[in-house]
């Protein structure tokens, strides 16, 4: 091997390593998204026994255990300037999950997740002001109008709950940024998860007292917590070390499609072609917006 060829070999090896890491990141993102939606579907199987509130309570407990183990926060050392965004994040975290699961109970997994996805999409579109983002906003709005158009079977309470989840998700993103600036690592998110779990502790006790749970229902709720909280969180930590944040955001746009497919295959929640078109519009708006940013 000549000296001149050595840099080419090193460059080729480096490119192969980057490609391998990128592929691993894509596989992890796909697994994370599928796990999240399957978890929501499994959790919905416990609704007849525990209701959405009971399932969310169990999910909050599981999320707290995982995040506290990973983040290892030291809340006694927090100042008030660090505590107040953590407390807001805890309230938003619980409200987001409760409103989403209540929406799933009323309008199905695919539509609920699609409407919830408007939260991060709105945050992304609001970050820049150009013609592409304006067009993306119009596309997303058309999708929402299609999904929420007046019809006899429309459940506007369920849609409203999904939009509340969207607003909470947008707030969750902004509060996470504020918490991240004030606290190192995952301490803020872990503490927020712990506080949220404490808030749901009396809720869980009331649910158990009024509706004695079955082993199957508790198993479904715990599975929802693991699949929709623990697995995605750990997978996202792995992924963000291997792929750019914009690629991560672009891939997140497939979640409404995954939710619709899981709802169709796992729960028998079929959608009309107009609803698929609405989901496609929301997904396309996010994908176009993220692609334009990456190209710029």
Percent in strands? under 5%
Helix proportion = over 70%
> Quick check: average pLDDT?
81
Low-confidence stretches: 6-16
Distinct helical segment count:
12
The rounded distance between the terminal residues' Cα atoms is 40 Å
- Major sheet description: none
**SSE string, helices as H and strands as E:** HHHHHHHHHHHH
Overall, the morphology is globular
Q: Roughly how many Å is the radius of gyration?
A: 21 Å
How many DSSP-defined strands? 0
* Category by helix and strand content: mainly alpha
Family: Belongs to the EamA transporter family.
Domain EamA: 158-285
Keywords: Membrane, Transmembrane, Transmembrane helix
InterPro entries: EamA_dom, EmrE-like
How does this model look, in words?
The chain has 296 residues and is mostly helical. It has helices spanning 5-44, 47-71, 80-107, 109-116, 118-126, 131-147, 156-182, 187-210, 215-239, 245-252, 255-267, 273-295. The chain is globular, with a radius of gyration of 21 Å. Mean pLDDT is 81; it is low at 6-16. Keywords: Membrane, Transmembrane, Transmembrane helix. The chain crosses the membrane at residues 45-71, 83-101, 107-127, 156-175, 187-209, 215-235, 247-267. It comes from Streptomyces galilaeus. Residues 158-285 form the EamA domain.
């Amino acid at each position: 091997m000549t000296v001149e060829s050595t840099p080419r070999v090193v460059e080729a090896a480096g490119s192969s390593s980057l490609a391998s890491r990128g592929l691993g990141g894509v596989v992890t993102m796909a697994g994370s998204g599928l796990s999240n939606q399957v978890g929501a579907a499994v959790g919905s199987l416990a609704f007849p026994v525990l209701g959405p509130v009971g399932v969310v309570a169990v999910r909050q407990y599981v999320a707290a255990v995982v995040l506290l183990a990973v983040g290892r926060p030291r809340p006694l050392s927090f100042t008030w300037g660090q505590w107040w965004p953590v407390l807001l994040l805890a309230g938003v975290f619980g409200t987001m999950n409760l409103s989403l699961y209540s929406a799933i109970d009323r309008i199905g997994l695919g539509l609920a997740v699609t409407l919830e996805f408007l939260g991060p999409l709105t945050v992304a579109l609001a970050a820049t002001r150009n013609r592409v983002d304006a067009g993306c906003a119009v596309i997303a709005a058309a999708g929402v109008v299609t999904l929420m158009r007046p019809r006899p079977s429309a459940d506007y309470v369920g849609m409203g709950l999904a939009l509340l989840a969207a607003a909470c998700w947008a707030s969750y993103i902004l509060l996470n940024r504020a918490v991240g600036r004030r606290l190192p690592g995952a301490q803020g998110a872990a503490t927020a998860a712990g506080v949220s779990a404490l808030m749901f502790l009396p809720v869980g006790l009331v649910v158990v007292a009024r509706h004695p749970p079955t082993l199957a229902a508790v198993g479904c709720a715990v599975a929802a917590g693991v699949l929709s909280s623990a697995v995605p969180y750990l997978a996202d930590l792995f992924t963000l070390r291997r792929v750019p944040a914009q690629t991560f955001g672009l891939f997140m746009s497939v979640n409404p499609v995954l939710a619709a497919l899981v709802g169709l295959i796992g729960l028998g929640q079929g959608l009309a072609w107009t609803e698929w078109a609405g989901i496609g519009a929301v997904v396309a708006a996010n994908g176009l917006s993220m692609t334009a940013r990456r190209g710029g």
